[in-house]
Each structure stands twice: as C-alpha cells, then as structure tokens.
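Mods, move this if it's the wrong board.
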Amino acid sequence: MFYTDTRLRASGNETGQELAAAEEETQKPPSSPSFLLGLALGIVVGVGLALAALAVVALAGDGDQASPLAVAPTPTPPGAATPTPDARPRATASVNVRTGPSNDAAVLGVLGGGQAVDIVGRDTTSAWLAVRFPPGSSSTGWVPAGILEGLGDVSRLAIVQATPVPLVFRPPAGAGGAGAATPGAPQGPTPTPVPLPDLVVLSASLRGDGRVSVLVGNTGGRMEQGFFFIQFIDRRGQSELVTVTQSVGQGGAVSVVSDTFRPRPGEPVRVTVNPFGDMREASTANNTLETTLAAATPPPS
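Not the wrong board. Structure tokens:
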C-alpha cells in the first residue's frame, strides 16, 4: 500500500505539471508561419464577403431608380411641326383655261405647267374639270382632266354647270363718263384713312397687227398690290385674260397690249380692269370700257 500511494502521488504531480505547462503555452502569442497565413486568408475572405453583401444591398435599393445613363427625350419645340407638302393636283403642262367644258369656249387665261389648282367639280363626261381661276379667287374656269396629275377618283367629284360670261353691251358713256358722280348725291365716308386705288381704262385702240392696246390709269390712292388683271372680250365670245405684273402709281398710267385677242374692226369690244374684284378699289363702276375699235390707220408713205 505504501508503494502504491507513492506512485499515485508521483502521477498526480506529473499531471499537474503538464496542465501548468499547457496553460502557459496557450497564454503565449502564436508565432507559427502557417497560423499567420491562415489568419490573413480569413481576413481577406471576410472582407470580400462583406463587400459583396454591401453591393447586393445597394443594387436592391436602387431597383426603382432611373439608370444614370438614361437620356431623356428632347422635347419638340412648339411650332416646329414638319410642313405638309402641297397635295393638290398640278398641271403637267401649260393649258388654256376656258369659260366652259369645251375647246370652243372662250379662253380666260393660261394655267402654267406645274401650277397647283383647287378642283371645284367636273362635267357630266368627267373629261373637263372646273378649277378656281385665277388661283386663289372665287371665279371658275375649265381645263381638260387629262392635263392634271394627282387627281384621284374623278367620278367622286360633284357635277357642276358652266357659268357663261355675260356679254352686255351698252352705248358709250356721255361726256360725264361711266361712274361720274351725280350732282347733289350724298358722298359716303372714306372707309379707311388711307385712300384706296381706283383703276380706270382710259382708252383702247386697235394696233396694226390686230391686237388691242389699252391705257390703264390710277385716279385713286397708292396701289399696294403688285399685279392686276385685264379682260378683253368681243361679241363673238373671243376673250383673253392678261395678267399685268406691275403697280400703277397714284395719278399714273400704264399701257397694256393683248396677246392673242384680235377683234374685227368695227365690232364692239369690252375691256375690264380688275374683272374679278380681287383688288380693293375706291370704285369699280369705272373699271369697264365698251367701245368700237376702228382699223388702225397706216402711216403715211
């Protein structure tokens, strides 16, 4: 028994010494290279996971926000609409505009090639179309349908009747002249402070080549419009519409010669300035001159 107790005490002492040595070892700072490498790797992995988590949170929070690269559409400024091209029918070549749907009708004027027109209607055969002439006016002329392009379905147009040009011949005015003021008649007030022009056909004569020469004067105010029309017509229905591309100054006059209008000597003719009333005048009662033109006297030999 004494020997056994001695061994137990010796074993107990050794166990206590080992535990004390182990505790002392745990209190010492680690200095092994493998431990330091593992510690560094753990720190790197931990930081990477933290950054990834932050990125996921940031993306989830910005899901409802617009991307910074999105470009807002540029608004269209007011009034910058794309102009609409003129889709009206156009003449493929120059053509005479007539008073009715027939080549025998009197000529009102010429529609230039490429010029756009406003269609009013058609005749019963759809071979002739009624158009606004002069362009922009309320008057009507007739042209063959085949001379226009861009018409569409002509049969859908309304059928209209030709309005004949009235041929009313009155005796030449007396000394007072057509449109002279009646003595004692009340004079109306001037509609505007600026006097309006007043075009008058002062004279007409027959030239040696058969054409008619007229003198048009302005007895009113300054003429703002830079053009006007003159219509020639005789008893046989021959007519011509001439466009004068110049103004007549206040108190001035211009000479105009017909192009194709050649009346017979001794027959009455009528010359009208501003026949459609497109230009505002002080008076339209003196716009027409009706007279009989004598043959031109040949110059002395």
